[in-house]
Amino acid sequence: MNNIYLLMALTLLASISPLLTFAYLWQIKEWRIDRLKEHIRAEGFFRQFFGLIRPALLVIFIPLAFTNMREWHLHILIILSILSCVQIMMHRQPKPVWTMKALSLVLGSIFITIAISASIILYSGNLNLLAILPYVQTITLVISWMLFFPMDRLLKIQILKKASKIRGMHPNITVVGITGTAGKTTTKELLKHLLSDKNMMATPEHTNSEIGVARWIKSTLSKNETPEILIVEMGAYRPKEIAKLCYIAKPTIGVLTTIGKQHLALFGSQEALCNAKAELIESLPESGHAYINVDNELCNSVKNRTKGALTTIGTGGHSDLEAYEIEETGTGINFRVSNMFYKVPIHGTHNVTNVLLAIAVAKDLGMDEHEIARKLLSFKVPSRTFYVSVKKGVTVLNDTHNASPSSFRAAIAWAHNQNAEEKILITNGLMELGQLQDSIHTKLGSMASDKLSRVIFLSKRNAKNFQKGFNKPVEIYNKEIKSVPEKSLLVCIGRMSNKTINSILPK
User: Fold this and answer.
1) Range of the domain at 120
2) Domain match, 324 and 408 both
3) Is 367 inside a domain boundary?
4) In terms of Cα–Cα distance, which of 104, 107, 141, 103 is closest to 26?
C-alpha cells in the first residue's frame, strides 16, 4: 500500500511543472482554444512545454522497456519530480494567476492525473505507463476545461444578462466604448486622466473581454454612488464579440483608434477584422457620437457605418480635428490643434492620434481646451505602454503591454531618432498574425537593419524571419546573454516580464 501512495505522489509531483507551465500559457491566452491553437501553430509545442531534459529522458528510458531493466518508470518519475522541485524552489516555474477559474482547472487536472495513476497502479499490469502521465498534462488540463465548460458557460450567460439588466437600469449614464487593434489602452488612460475630476469610472488593466467588462459593469453599477461616465475598453478575437460588449455596455460614444493586422490569424481575413472593429460604431444609437482616426486607412473605410454624429481626427489635413507642427522632444510630444498648443509627456509621434481622440471626446463631454491642455501636462504613461525610463544608466523603452506591427514600427522609428551609443532591441516578436507572421517579421527586420545595432529575440522562429530582413546576426535570449552597456538604449517590445528585462541590464 505504501508503494502505491509513493508512486501516485511521484507521478503527481513529476506532473506539476508541465501542468503549471501549460496553465500559465493558456491563461495568458484567456482560456481560449482558438488563441492557444494559434500560439502552438506559431511557436511549436513540445520543446516549449517540456524543454530539453524531459524529452531526452523519454528517449533514454523508453528503449529500456524492451530490456531487462525493471521499474524504469520509477527512475524517470524520480528525475522528473526532482526537476519540478528545483524549478519551483529556484522560482523559475511559470504559474497562472490564481483566479477561481485557474484554480478550478488546475485542481481538476490534478484530480484526473490522480485518478488515471490510481487506475494504472490497481488495474494495469504495466506500471511504466505512469512515466507517460507527466507528458500529457496538456490533455488532462483540456479534459478538466471540457468538464468545467458547461458550468462556466452557464455562469457566463447569467453574468452577461445580469450586467446588461443593471446597465439598462441606468439609462442616463454616458458610456464611452474604445476599440481598435492598437492604442486602446493608451487612449483609455488619456481620457480617464482628462475626466478624472468628473464622476467617472474606467475599466481596469486587462479588462476588455465580454466577461471581464460584464463583471466590472455589474460591480460598478451595483454600488450606492453611480458614476455619470463609464469608459470601457473593448477587445475582440472573433466577429460579434464587440457587438456583445455593446449589448452589455450600451455605449453612446464610440472611439476607433486604429485597425491593423493584430489577431489577423483569429479573424481569418483583414475584412473580417475590419468588420469586427466596426461593430462598435454600428452599435451606437442615432443620438450617439463616433470618433474615428482617419489617418488609418481601414478606420477611414468604415466611418460612414455609424447612425449618429461623426468626428474624424488625424494629422493628414483631411479630418475634423487636426494636429499640426508635431514634434518629439526628450520629455514627450508637442503639437498644435487650431490655435491651441499641447504638450503631452508621452513618447512616440504615433500616439498623437490617441491624444487627439481623447481631446475630442473630452471636449464633447464639456471640457474646455485650456483645461484639457493643462491636464495633459500631468499625464503619466502606463508603465508597460511605450513607457520610457532610465535603469542602471540605460534608457529603456518598455512597450510590453501588447504589440502590433504598427507599434513595433513606431518603436523602431522612435529609437532611430534617439541619441545613444548603442541601440538594442529585445522582443518576443508578434503573435496571431496568421500566414503573414513570417513576412511581417522579415519586413520589420529590414526596417530595423540600419537603425539598431543589436537584436535579441525570445522566440527562435520569429528571430529567423526577422534576421532575413535585418541582414545581421540575431541573438537568442538565454541566461548567459551579454548585458547591455551603460548609456545605451534598450527597446522592449511584446509580452515579457520585468525580470527578463532586468536580467540584461548592467550588473
Assistant:
1) 2-150
2) no
3) yes
4) 141
Residue 354 within any structural domain of the chain: yes
CB 144 within 8 A of CB 152: no
Query: Are the C-beta atoms of 108 and 147 separated by less than 8 Å?
Result: yes
Within this chain, do residues 245 and 345 fall inside the same structural domain, yes or no?
yes
Please state the separation of Cα 40 from the chain's center in Å.
Answer: 16
Q: Is the dihedral of CA 303, 306, 310, 313 positive or negative?
A: negative
Q: Are residues 200 and 345 in the same domain?
A: yes
Q: State pLDDT tens for residues 11-59.
A: 899 889 889 988 988 887 878 887 777 777 666 656 555 655 666 666 6
DSSP output for 2-49: HHHHHHHHHHHHHHHHHHHHHHHHHHHTTT-HHHHHHHHHHH-SHHHH
Taking a C-beta distance cutoff of 8 angstroms, is the pair 14, 86 a contact?
no
Residue 136 in grid coordinates: 500529457
pLDDT in tens, 319-355: 999 999 999 888 899 999 999 999 999 998 999 999 9
Which amino acid is present at 317? G
Q: What is the distance between the terminal CA atoms of the chain, rounded to a whole angstrom?
A: 53
Q: What is the CATH number of the domain that holds 406?
A: 3.90.190.20
Least confident stretch, 107-111, 119-123, 145-149, 256-260: 119-123
Looking at the structure of the chain, the number of domains it has is: 3
Same domain, 132 and 190: no
pLDDT tens digits, residue range 213-230? Answer: 999 999 999 877 889 999
CA within 13 Å, CB half, 186? 31
Walk across the sheet containing 229-233 and list its strands.
200-202, 229-233, 174-179, 253-256, 289-293, 309-314, 321-322
Of 345, 376, 407, at which residue does a domain stop?
A: 376
Task: Calculate ∠ Cα 341-342-345, nearest 5°.
Answer: 155
Identify whether residues 341 and 467 lie together within a single domain: no
140 and 9 in a common domain: yes
